[in-house]
């Protein structure tokens, strides 16, 4: 891309006078055509820095993916029985059919493959689901404080899971009863929030947030009522698991499969629809100018977010603040464009929750802290920082 000569006057002033005298007709020629001036245009030209920015973003995503892979391997070996990364890698490779011998210790084999690997995979999948859901919701409502927990979606999923545990609802679905009802509850909560927040055909951020708080409190009361009216002490303890959050029940089962599929599929689908999120983040007027229906687009996005949140809650309970903190960190690394911010959020969210689970297991060993305590300890100060920044910016 060539540049008009008039725009280069500051540079020409620094040249020797005889350089200017040699080209007296430059000013009369006007803007130079691409490739006809002496400017270094061509295959290597990148005047706006777009190629350099793309390479930098790709490098950051590759580094995040590598760090996540290393984190998964390290976290598999951390626990009451410490195991080296080499042992963990050997067990995993053997179980996946690689031509490596099994480890000599059968106990180590069982600990790694039956307990820690599914727990770590569940943590990575749940963290990715919550992070991309938060990133999408923040764009949809144009509010920095939006996440599945604040908007009541997690509460809806928890209520659905509680109904499956305490009332036996959806028993015909077998192993898929809890995630299916969690998804139904999340979707119902999301649509309820959307309907309440809609006014004169528009959905404002303030109304959406206030509606989410109201629906969240109502669902919390309903979940508490289900617990109080239940005669099963074991069932009540299981529901408390959903409300506090934990990865202790991670196993190779349908719930883990659904969480992994939701994380991978949700990231892929939302990334493919990144231009729509960019348009919503720019405002409804921009979306209309691009031929989009903001309300219809938001509903479609809410379905995807509800599925991801439902899968996360079905696997680990209601874990707050992950969807609030991680998207902001991702945007600081790769910029505000959702084509890069969503994969970065997924990778950061997966790594963050895996290490949060390690801290939850080790902070008060041999007792295990609910993982929601760790995420809240990080998310609450971050929320205060956001509020302070909004006040300084006049928001």
From TrEMBL:
Biased amino acid composition, Basic and acidic residues: 15-28
Keywords from the named record: Cell membrane, Membrane, Transmembrane, Transmembrane helix, Transport
Gene Ontology biological process: siderophore-iron import into cell
Transmembrane segments: 58-79, 120-137, 149-170, 176-196, 208-228, 240-264, 299-329, 341-363, 369-387
GO cellular component: plasma membrane
Membrane topology: Multi-pass membrane protein
Superkingdom of the source species: Bacteria
Predominant place of localization: membrane
InterPro entries xrefs: ABC_BtuC-like, ABC_transptr_permease_BtuC
Record localization: Cell membrane
MF terms in GO: transmembrane transporter activity
UniProt-annotated stretches for the region Disordered: 1-48
Family that this chain belongs to: Belongs to the binding-protein-dependent transport system permease family. FecCD subfamily.
Name of the molecule in the record: Iron ABC transporter permease
Species in which this protein is naturally found: Brachybacterium saurashtrense
């Amino acid at each position: 891309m060539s540049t008009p000569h008039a725009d280069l006057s500051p540079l020409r002033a620094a040249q020797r006078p005889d350089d200017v005298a040699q080209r007296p007709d430059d000013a009369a020629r006007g803007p130079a055509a691409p490739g006809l001036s002496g400017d270094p245009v061509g295959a290597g030209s990148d005047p706006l820095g777009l190629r350099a920015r793309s390479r930098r973003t790709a490098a950051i995503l590759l580094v995040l993916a590598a760090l996540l892979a290393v984190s998964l391997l390290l976290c598999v070996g951390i626990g009451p029985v410490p195991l080296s990364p080499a042992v963990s890698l050997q067990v995993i490779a053997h179980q996946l059919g690689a031509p490596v011998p099994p480890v000599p210790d059968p106990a180590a084999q069982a600990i790694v493959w039956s307990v820690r690997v599914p727990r770590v995979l569940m943590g990575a999948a749940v963290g990715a689901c919550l992070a991309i859901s938060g990133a999408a919701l923040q764009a949809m409502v144009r509010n920095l404080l939006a996440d599945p927990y604040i908007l009541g979606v997690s509460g809806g999923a928890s209520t659905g899971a509680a109904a499956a545990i305490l009332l036996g609802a959806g028993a015909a679905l077998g192993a898929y009863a809890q995630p299916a009802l969690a998804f139904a509850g999340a979707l119902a909560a999301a649509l309820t929030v959307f309907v309440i927040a809609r006014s004169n055909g528009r959905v404002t951020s303030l109304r959406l947030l206030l509606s989410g708080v109201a629906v969240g409190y109502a669902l919390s009361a309903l979940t508490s009522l289900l617990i109080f009216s239940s005669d099963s002490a074991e069932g009540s303890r299981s529901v408390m698991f959903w409300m506090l959050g934990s990865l202790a029940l991670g196993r190779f089962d349908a719930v883990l499969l659904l969480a992994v599929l939701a994380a991978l599929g949700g990231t892929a689908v939302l990334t493919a629809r990144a231009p729509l999120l960019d348009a919503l983040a720019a405002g409804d007027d921009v979306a209309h100018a691009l031929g989009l229906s903001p309300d219809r687009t938001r509903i479609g996005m809410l379905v995807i977010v509800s599925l991801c949140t439902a899968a996360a809650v079905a696997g680990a309970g209601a874990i707050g603040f992950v969807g609030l903190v991680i998207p902001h960190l991702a945007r600081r690394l790769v910029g505000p464009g959702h084509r890069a911010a969503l994969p970065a959020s997924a990778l950061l969210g997966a790594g963050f929750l895996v290490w949060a689970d390690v801290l939850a297991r080790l902070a008060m060993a041999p007792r295990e802290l609910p993982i929601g305590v760790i995420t809240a300890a990080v998310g609450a100060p971050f929320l205060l920082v956001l509020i302070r920044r909004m006040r300084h910016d006049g928001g």
